[in-house]
Amino acid sequence: xxxxxxxxxxxxxxxxxxxxxxxxxxxxxxxxxxxxxxxxxxxxxxxxxxxxxxxxxxxxxxxxxxxxxxxxxxxxxxxxxxxxxxxxxxxxxxxxxxxxxxxxxxxxxxxxxxxxxxxxxxxxxxxxxxxxxxxxxxxxxxxxxxxxxxxxxxx
Length: 155
Known about the structure:
mainly alpha
């Protein structure tokens, strides 16, 4: 029997509570609340697939990163550290992020494919993104991907 990502989060939350790990338990609680909120959004309650749960975790991790940056810029180092630590807890549930070199290789192949299909210049951005996004899903942030595509199209 395979365990779903959501049930793994529940199990890890229970373990964190038993270990009195306040950081992990609060982070996992917030993440599970976000997952539940996503499940009841819309007209009908539904069970999220592992991919959808992963997207919610990715969104939560991004929120933590942005909050950490905002706190750091605001001179609130203690809160910034807390947000970074929560982001690290969530990172354990996400696939390994692509390195810059791996991302560049995937984008370069996509640019070649788009050019072969007749897309040229900066207007090829949409065509290239359509090719790249399924290949990097969940392993690279959209902004990083877009920057890499712009850089290669500018060359």
